[in-house]
Amino acid sequence: MVCENLNIKPEDFYTYMGSFKGAARRLELVGKNENANFFKDFAHSPSKLRATIHAVKAQFPERKLIACIELHTFSSLDKDFLSQYSGAMDSADTAIVFIDKRTFEHKKMTPYGAETVKEAFSKADLLFFNEPGELLKYLENIDMKGKNLLMMSSGNFGGIDLPGLSVTIL
Question: How many whole angstroms separate alpha carbon 135 and alpha carbon 138?
Fold first, then answer.
């Protein structure tokens, strides 16, 4: 109906939609095989986190979802704001929060640890990493059969090579 109001013919819409690759940095497919997908997404706010997790779960209801969020913006790292993430990762089968400990140093913020994050997210089984190497080691050892991995950040996960990781785990 929107297209009709804009005088776009249905056949033109379908022609162009066939080659549309989606919005940049939104739910990008990093890699896949017959049993798993690896996505990255720009999501970092609580509402975008919920929506992105929901979208992947809705598209692949038969697969387990491993969802990892990197907190690195001033607002997302603000201890008073953290509680806004409460329940944001509840739909993920495995929920991971990554905060590169160097980020606190660069932003001259007082660091906090796993218990603060787990309490804020209201998810006792949440996994927390603050070293890129430890996160990478964990991700490399996941059996990806029947699972999807969703990495969400407006940052770079401490320099982890996501395309390289995709090759390793898929």
Answer: 5
Tell me which of 42 and 167 has the higher pLDDT: 167
Domain 22-169 grouped into CATH 3.30.360.10:
no
Residue 24 has pLDDT above 70, yes or no: no
Amino acid letter for position 115: E
Closest by Cα among 26, 60, 59 to 41:
26
Looking at residue 28, its amino acid is E
Q: Kind and range of the H or E element at 51?
A: helix 46-59
CA proximity to 38, closest of 21, 19, 63, 20? 63
Identify any residues that bridge with 149 across adjacent strands, giving them in sequence order. Answer: 38, 66
11-34 average pLDDT score: 77
Three-state SS letters, 86-154:
CCCCCCCCEEEEECCHHHHHHCCCCCCCHHHHHHHHCCCCCEEECCHHHHHHHHHCCCCCCEEEEEECC
For the chain, the maximum distance between any two Cα atoms, rounded to a whole number of angstroms, is 56
Report the run of H or E that residue 164 belongs to, with start and end: helix 162-169
